[in-house]
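Annual report, structural modelling task.

Input specification for the heme C complex:
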Amino acid sequence: MRVLSSLGGLLAALCIGSSACAADRVGDPLAGKAWSDENVCKECHNPDGNSTVAEYPRLGGQQAAYLYKQLRDFRDGRRRNVIMQALTQELGDAELANVSAHFAAQPVMKGTVASAQSASSLGRKLFEQGDGARGIPACSACHGADGKGRVAGGLAYPAIGGQHRFYLRGQLQDWRSDIRRNSPDGVMNQIAKSLGDKDIEALADYLSGL
Ligand code: HEC
Ligand code: HEC
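The model returned the following structure:
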């Protein structure tokens, strides 16, 4: 818990005046829906954001402030992905905020409880309690007890419960190897470096079922 509270304090302190913070811009979900209907987002992420293809993350019910931050991070080069960087290049903040509000208002991403229950107990333990001896904080402390994310202290913690297993595994590997580096003060890089391959498999398994 000591690790966790020091990380939490660090994030809160960093948030003041930093671009790492959840953006406070609130979008218009109806304008976002109209815009999204005319654009390609739905081809990969589905009209309600609950993509059925493992490579394309689910956006349905995701925290609006998190979606908005990611879209600006892609556009401004803080998060790298060939497709998403190309698609956001020409877009303004208002369009990004609106489309974020639209997907956030859709049914929340959801796995099947049966698959969470059949996942190994390691994934559940790391999510609920972490592993103090190895410096791994409980994921639930930041991502919410139900894994559906939250906004606290000006920061957006994304929903990870019910996300595709393939995508979760990929992101955890990318945080660990510093391919993805857009979390506030590198908090997810620090955490992922304490995770072994077996931990990542177990977490992706468990979380995708929630
Ligand atoms: C050709 C397929 C494709 C299209 C079209 C597409 N995306 Fe994506 N999107 C992806 C992929 C692949 C990723 C994962 C990138 C990664 O691995 O970092 C992604 C990631 C995202 C994320 C980050 C999700 C997260 O959990 O961090 C957001 C937000 C997003 N897309 C929104 C959009 C919006 C809005 C549009 C329409 C303007 C759109 N996407 C169009 C393929 C697509
Ligand atoms: C101290 C708070 C904190 C803790 C503890 C934490 N996270 Fe995170 N996590 C974050 C933040 C903040 C982000 C959003 C980063 C960004 O803005 O790009 C994030 C993002 C993620 C993402 C990317 C989601 C997406 O849609 O792309 C995954 C996956 C993730 N965390 C998994 C975990 C797992 C697994 C654990 C437990 C081992 C964990 N996190 C513990 C703060 C935390």
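Residues 4, 7-8, 57, 69, 126, 136-137, 139, 141-143, 155, 157-158, 160, 168, 171-172, 182-184, 187-188, 191, 203 surround heme C (ligand 2) (CB under 6 Å).
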